[in-house]
Amino acid sequence: MLGEKCYPDLKAVPEQIDLVDIFRRSETVMPVVEQAIEVGAKYIWMQDGVVNEEAARLAREAGIPVVMDNCTFREHVRRFGGKDSS
Questions:
Q1: Structurally, how many domains does the chain consist of?
Q2: What count of other Cβ atoms lies within 10 Å of the Cβ of residue 46?
């Protein structure tokens, strides 16, 4: 997609995963978080409206920092400047 290689799941990614950015309904997050833990992802980010406290707890217990219900783009603009399109 857009010149980037796509993978069917996190376990298929051959490189270390820094950030798992989740754009799914809250109730479907747990399997993604479980895979993120399994592959040793460094961070988990759940986008606007995505909140799953149980999945977040599991990730944090595995030592992975979690952000929920926040937009990566908006946060980047807030921290580093630029034009926010929202």
A1: 1
A2: 25
Residue 7 lies in a domain: no
Beta-carbon contacts of 42 under 8 Å, excluding residues fewer than 6 positions away, are: 16, 17, 18, 19, 64, 65
Instruction: Tell whether 26 is covered by a domain.
Output: yes
Strand order from edge to edge, sheet including 43-46: 19-22, 43-46, 66-67
* pTM of the shown model: 0.87
Note the pLDDT tens digit of each residue in 13-52.
Answer: 999 999 999 999 999 999 999 999 999 999 999 999 999 9
Q: Which residues contact 53 (CB under 8 A, 6 or more apart)?
A: none
- Assign residue 30 the CATH number of its domain: 3.40.50.720
Residues 45/22, Cβ–Cβ less than 8 Å: yes
**Measuring CA to CA, which residue among 75, 44, 46 is closest to residue 61?**
44
**Domain that includes residue 71, residue range:** 14-80
